[in-house]
């Protein structure tokens, strides 16, 4: 009998010990002996002493070095163990005796960290798959050992290390009940991330950093910031100041160049690369800031011009729009390049009816608009490449509009229905963000207001992607199902 993937995932979790490693590693051999972690444990990195200091702050700037990356990871791991601590009472049966006698056992007194490779700048801002994120971890007797090719692998190992240890109820001892330990791990997919929409719902830098912390804890490596839309334009572009002056929800609900640089640095030091998205040509609400560059802004009925209000789209076949994009990219992309390999140009939900009310076009004929959209994408992606970044687009560009893309362009799929296989068959790299499984904002009810004649048809007012995507549903999905074998590495 073949078990469904959800059952296999649940079984794996149920059979694992209470301090199961997350995500489940490729190989793990865990014992049943108790080892305590000495609070004065000596740490070495490539044979040199590495100090552990509470509140360690990484150096500022775009020049990253392996030692500072590792030192930050060590501080977070030891702070999680010694400062925060986790007592696993909720993971045990009520009334059970699960704690070892405090201090009765061997102590880990040394942690040896060895990096076998040399990190270049491309470790911090390389394309997916170019960084070796694997690691080995062992605990036995009075010693713990970590080995990895890159500092990113060491960060993952330190996350695993902290997951092995619990805080004793006496508040003075820290132990694992799974010694000896031998773990080897490496990611199954080179791109593992979350999209955060900071245009429709503005988040503070502190909130975004908390999300980055969560990514690092789960050994994920990408944060996709959907940073502009028709709802608001929060990212400050000094060369185009009216974008935030007129486009932000409110004064102060913006991200300055210094704040974005700080955010990128914070992410790099946690093994996370930020992918910034400026959605285009649709989902653009700049008409009040720079009139004449867009069409259909806040047009009614919205269903004719966009997927959700307010509408807005950049004009096609317009040299002033191209000049605007050049100015935008020449300001923003050099500030992204030191930290990331990618820039996302959007491209989802573009509607031909926008061009029907463009005085220069007055048509929604797809055969007329497709070459103009191809020119638009070609111009944008040429500029992205000039800044040594790799473009991302949403799936509608190649699948609905038949846009030809460079082979390095990454296509993000979200609509399901076999799209991943279709994109891979075109020879493109593909990221699967299938809303049927992966959208975490579903199931909270309809947020749109409706005109009186149609409101009752939306009863009981579920949102468009209802219901909530629970973890069992997420685990039931295998992104590469239905993808021909020759394209599964795409």
From TrEMBL:
InterPro entries: Beta_hexosaminidase_sua/sub, GH, Glyco_hydro_20_cat, Hex-like_dom2, HEX_eukaryotic_N
GO biological process, one term: glycosaminoglycan metabolic process
Entry annotation: catalytic residues: 349
Single GO cellular component term: membrane
Residues annotated as domain Beta-hexosaminidase eukaryotic type N-terminal: 21-164
Residues making up the signal peptide according to the UniProt record: 1-20
Glycoside hydrolase family 20 catalytic domain location: 189-472
Name the record gives this protein: beta-N-acetylhexosaminidase
Enzyme Commission no: 3.2.1.52
Organism, as annotated: Bionectria ochroleuca (Gliocladium roseum)
């Amino acid at each position: 009998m073949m078990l469904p993937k959800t059952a296999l995932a649940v079984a794996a979790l149920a059979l694992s010990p209470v301090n199961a490693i997350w995500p489940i590693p490729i190989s793990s051999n865990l014992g049943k002996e108790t080892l305590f972690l000495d609070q004065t444990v000596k740490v070495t990195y490539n044979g040199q002493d590495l100090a552990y200091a509470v509140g360690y702050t990484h150096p500022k700037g775009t020049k990253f070095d392996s030692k500072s990356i590792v030192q930050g990871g060590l501080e977070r791991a030891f702070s999680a163990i010694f400062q925060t601590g986790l007592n696993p009472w909720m993971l045990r049966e009520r009334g059970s005796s699960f704690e070892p006698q405090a201090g009765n056992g061997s102590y880990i007194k040394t942690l040896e960290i060895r990096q076998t490779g040399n990190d270049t700048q491309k470790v911090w801002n390389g394309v997916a798959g170019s960084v070796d994120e694997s690691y080995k971890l062992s605990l036995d007797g009075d010693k713990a050992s970590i080995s990895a090719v890159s500092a990113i692998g060491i960060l993952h190992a330190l996350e695993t290390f902290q997951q092995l240890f619990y805080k004793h109820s006496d508040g003075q001892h820290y132990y694992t009940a799974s010694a000896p330990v031998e773990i080897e791990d490496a990611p199954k997919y080179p791109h593992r991330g979350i999209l955060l929409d900071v245009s429709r719902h503005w988040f503070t830098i502190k909130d975004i950093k908390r999300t980055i912390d969560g990514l690092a804890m789960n050994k994920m490596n990408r944060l996709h910031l959907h940073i502009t839309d028709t709802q608001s334009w929060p990212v400050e572009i000094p060369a185009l100041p009216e974008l935030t002056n007129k486009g932000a929800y409110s004064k102060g609900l913006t991200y300055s160049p210094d704040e974005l640089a700080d955010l990128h640095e914070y992410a790099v030091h946690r093994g996370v690369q930020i992918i910034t998205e400026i959605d285009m040509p649709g989902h653009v609400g700049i008409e009040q800031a720079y009139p004449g560059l867009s069409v259909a802004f806040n047009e009614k009925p919205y269903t004719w011009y966009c997927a959700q209000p307010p509408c807005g789209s950049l004009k096609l076949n317009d040299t002033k729009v191209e000049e605007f994009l050049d100015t935008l990219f020449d300001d923003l992309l050099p500030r992204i390049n030191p930290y990331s390999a990618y820039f996302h140009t959007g491209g989802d939900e573009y509607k031909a009816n926008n061009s029907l009310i463009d005085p220069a076009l007055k048509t929604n004929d797809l055969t007329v608009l497709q070459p103009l959209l191809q020119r638009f994408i070609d111009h944008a992606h040429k500029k992205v490449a000039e800044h040594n970044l790799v473009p991302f687009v949403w799936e509608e560009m190649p699948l609905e509009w038949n846009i030809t893309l460079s082979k390095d362009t990454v296509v993000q799929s979200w609509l399901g229905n076999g799209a991943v296989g279709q994109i891979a068959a075109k020879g493109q790299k593909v990221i699967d963000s299938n809303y049927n499984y992966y959208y975490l904002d579903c199931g909270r009810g309809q947020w749109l207001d409706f005109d009186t004649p149609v409101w009752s048809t939306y009863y009981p007012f579920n949102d468009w992607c209802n219901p909530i995507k629970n973890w069992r549903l997420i685990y039931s999905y295998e992104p590469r199902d239905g993808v021909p074998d020759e394209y599964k590495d795409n």
